[in-house]
Each structure stands twice: as structure tokens, then as C-alpha cells.
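Have a close read of this protein, sequence plus C-alpha cells, and explain what the C-alpha cells say about the fold. Thanks in advance:
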Amino acid sequence: MSPTMKNIVVPLLAVTLAYAAYVFFIQGDTTLDDGATLTDDVLLRTQVFIERRALLDTVSIDVALFEDPVFRSYRSFSDAVESEPFGRTNPFGRTGIPESGQ
């Protein structure tokens, strides 16, 4: 086989094997032949969602802390954010060059 032919066949074979590996390993059993695999996956995910939702419903938060006078007496020492102008009159103009009154 000539070197030119090898240069064509080897990458073509590599791409074909990579595609076959992708189809076989990545896509797996998500076929829609009878829909059973897809339905089982949806049911499993739905069951997990229902279990997590039930777990979140059992969580209760005690908000009495926020109504405590000691908590309410805390003072914020943060600085107020001053509003500054933003943007430019011509966003497509060159920077650093004053705009003319045109």
C-alpha cells in the first residue's frame, strides 16, 4: 500500500472507530425500539425527584432568630453604593478620543 493511501485510510479508520465507540458507549441503551428503556429511565428520575421533594418538605426553618431584639439591634457598617453613570453615548466609538458634536 502506498504512503498516500495509508495517509487516507488510517485517519478514516480512526474516525470510523471513534464514531462506533461513541454510538456504543455514549448512547448506550437509549433506543426507542419498544420504549421500555426510556420509560424506565423517566420513571426512575421521577421517583428520585419525588423523594427529594418529600425530603425538602420535611425541612422547617425557625425564623425566631430574625425577630430577636439582639439580632435587630445589629447595625450595618457597609458603605452606601453611589450611583455612577454607566455606558457611553456611542458604544461603537473609539475609546480615549473625545466625541465631536456631530
